[in-house]
Amino acid sequence: MNRFGGRGRGISNNGRGSIKGKQPGGALRKITWDIRSLEPLRKDFYVEHPAVRNRSKDEVCKFRESAEITVKGDNVPNPIQYFEEGNFPPYVLEVIQKQGYSQPTAIQAQGWPIALSGKDLVAIAQTGSGKTLGYILPAIVHIIHQPRLSNGDGPVALILAPTRELAQQIQEVANSFGESAGVRNTCIFGGAPKGPQAHDLERGVEICIATPGRLIDFLERGTTNLCRCTYLVLDEADRMLDMGFEPQIRKIIEQIRPDRQVLMWSATWPKEVRALAEDFLTDYTHLNIGSLTLSANHNIIQIIDVCQEFEKDVKLYRLLQEIGNEKENKTIIFVETKRKVDDITRNIRRDGWQALSIHGDKNQQERDHVLQEFKSGRTPILIATDVAARGLDVDDVKYVINFDYPSSSEDYIHRIGRTGRRKQTGTAYAFFTSHNMKHAGDLIEVLKEAGQNINPRLTEMAELAKSGNYGNRSGKRFVGNDRSNGRRGHSDNRGRGCSSRGRGGSSTRGGNSAYRDRDRGDRRGGGARGGGRFGSRDGSSGGSRFGSSSNRDGGNFGNNFKNRQPGERLRKPRWDMSTLQPFRKDFYQPHPNVTTRNPHVVEAYRSDKEITVKGTDIPGPNIFFEEGGFPDYVLNEIRRQGFGEPTAIQAQGWPIALSGRDMVGIAQTGSGKTLAYILPAIVHINHQPRLNRNDGPIALILAPTRELAQQIQQVASDFGVSSQVRNTCIFGGAPKGPQARDLERGVEICIATPGRLIDFLERGTTNLRRCTYLVLDEADRMLDMGFEPQIRKIVEQIRPDRQTLMWSATWPKEVRNLAEEFLTDYIQINIGSLQLAANHNILQIVDVCEEYEKEGKLMKLLEEISNEPENKTIIFVETKRKVDDITRAINRYGWQAIGIHGDKSQQERDYVLNQFRSSRSAILVATDVAARGLGGMGGGSYSSKTFSQNSYGGASGGGSGGYQNGGGYGGNGGGGGGGGGGGGGSNYRQQNGY
């Protein structure tokens, strides 16, 4: 069986034949190095510039202080301040000037002299600090001073990176600066064909940029060697350890001569990275850029529950019940000891949830199995000691629970960093007892830095710990459910921080408010045996999104909602326009500047800002804020926020929206579109009658994700507070109680994800009878994520003479169809080029071939892809019949494949997509109709391949979930349909980073 889960042709369970269960690099022999027999190596090429040498100690200290440079080590050279002081060859300086760099970044200024001196270096700096150039330029200098490569020699410089994306970024820099010096490079990583990468290595390259897994593979095959390697870079070392690459890294370093130069780069400095540095670096210099203060990821909501030790088991059980009701609920529970890991795992499983454990007594095969089950979602609860953090690079973890608080704040930050990956939000809980009192002060600093609220009991603990008076009193003093949510907590009902909406409530209420309803079976759909969506051993006790051992449905649909269509309980209103209360939509009074502006000036402005408009009676753009006719309180807030002038989408969008017209805005993220609909929404609301009891919102803003919804809420809070426009933000992945209370109290603006809003509408928590202003933000993404049925149900609940504004980054036919159905006489605005462009994160390979060759090529390609650890694949074909034929053929070869097309019912589509999302079927064969429901496959936690059997425009877009790269393969008999690069021959592949 291969990684796709098929029986096919004797391939082993892990897709590598007889290598099943093999340790990384198990076939590599550890080299016994005899330094005396090695060719002497020169590493120190640094000649200090006179300007650097002549700077006083005080000047150097001031420069380091201003650049937040901290250094530790012996004989640390002074930083350079200008490129010319680095003594780089003239051709390197020419490229620097051509690239437009003005002066070195802090990491370059201090890092270059250290690296050029041949010293080992540990550099702690965040992404975007210029670290890549910090090691590439010294690498080039190092290489040009070494003997030329001979036939069969491996690289001189090796750069290890955790991901394909980072490796490709590094290669771009290596290409820019290495070309003029004749320094060749290659980039090798999983998820791409091995052939072209192997050819590069066999021809010989001075720089090899690699992910550890693929490099180990080539070393074991004898494709390359590291006998000539004298310059080693470990980039994002902390992340490589997080991803479980430590065994591979150790095996690789064993193959490199011990007198090498090593540069280790990391964003954090946990004990695992420190241990690696101590093992493999010699007399290294430690360089830190930025504040030395510990800081947590700001995308993580931190909830501290001050409690007693004996309460923790019950609290965990209740917390899992609550989390289990959320759609996305992958959870890691950290505990202190191996024994406690096993005990808690047994208890959780006994309560009916699917859980697995991992700790130091597990061998590598057991660890791999557990992590695979967790990553795939088959087992969504993982109980772990800190050792698990080494191998947990899972992007869709939504919750981290610190059952036992760790021994340091650094470990706490490292633990909670398992969630909130790739700009997603996550939630971290910590049970904090009197035994942890000595850490209270450090934890408060972490919470403050991240902008979280501080539990007053935690402050008490910190004060007691400082005074030393916490002996026997602690057991009595810190009792009960006292949860503090770090991000929400002041009393204003409109802001993001309101107590009624807080996950755990404000400090004055301790935290009970967010969990008041958690034990009610009618609210949570669970039972005494765990129920909920986490899963149950009893198929009748509620089902589970986390999975269950029930033979009937595996618990994937949950309770009595099994196979129910989104919003099917909602009755479609029959609108009688004659009985509806009239309302006003047009509030726009053109400014004299706008009415008198010459049409040529307007056209020149639109041309300069790349504004394209289509429709009738289009008002002119507002070039300045004062021309928008906004109330003074809005203009005051605009000035306070420091905005200079309207963006293109605002300048043209405001007059249209304020005129009460329906509108479609096509613009990329970052264009200022949120303000383009929030300000007209506030004006619209302030001209409507005030809300009465039980009225729903006036303005409804639908967004695809929790993250976007929260960003929108921030803008709505900033600009709505002065006119007392209240808002709430409702989304999955958070308790329903606080959100429901906001809706029941009444809000003028509701920002919502479609699924959670449908839930509240069905429960009768709110209604849309008063809604007259509708915004569909990122409409294309909502359709990609399969929200079209929910959107249609929601729009049905809103009066037909509403004003609708639709925003999208693209304009595919599905979005056009929705606009035609729900918008009236709309104006379309496009910001930016009208030229079609593909996602640049997708590696596109076009294979020019004959029609009859396609099936054979497909099977060979699937065989190659199946050897990769991440191999979720979508195959697009032209017709429904061909979908069925190809699906049968693939299954006949032994792979697990499933098909989807227009003849499938919604229930069948849901089943197919669930099988694909969960990786039980890793190959999906589809017509274009499938593209409507293929967003967020696992929250963007995998790298997909998209193979199009025919000409396609949008097919390869399915190959990149979240922020990861995918590969798009296009096969077409005529050679014209793929939309990619790098297929027909090896030259194309080399150009694409193979």
From TrEMBL:
GO terms for molecular function: ATP binding; hydrolase activity; nucleic acid binding; RNA helicase activity. Residues 527-545, 970-986 have a biased composition (Gly residues). Residues 112-287, 654-829 form the Helicase ATP-binding domain. CDD domains: SF2_C_DEAD. SUPFAM superfamilies: P-loop containing nucleoside triphosphate hydrolases. Residues 1-25, 465-574, 970-994 are annotated as: Disordered. It comes from the Eukaryota. Transmembrane segments: none annotated. A motif (Q motif) lies at residues 81-109, 623-651. Residues 81-109, 623-651 form the DEAD-box RNA helicase Q domain. It catalyses: ATP + H2O = ADP + phosphate + H(+). Residues 546-561 have a biased composition (Low complexity). Keywords: ATP-binding, Helicase, Hydrolase, Nucleotide-binding. Residues 515-525, 565-574 have a biased composition (Basic and acidic residues). Pfam families: DEAD (PF00270), Helicase_C (PF00271). GO terms for biological process: regulatory ncRNA-mediated gene silencing. The keyword Heme does not apply. PANTHER family: ATP-DEPENDENT RNA HELICASE DBP3. This is RNA helicase.
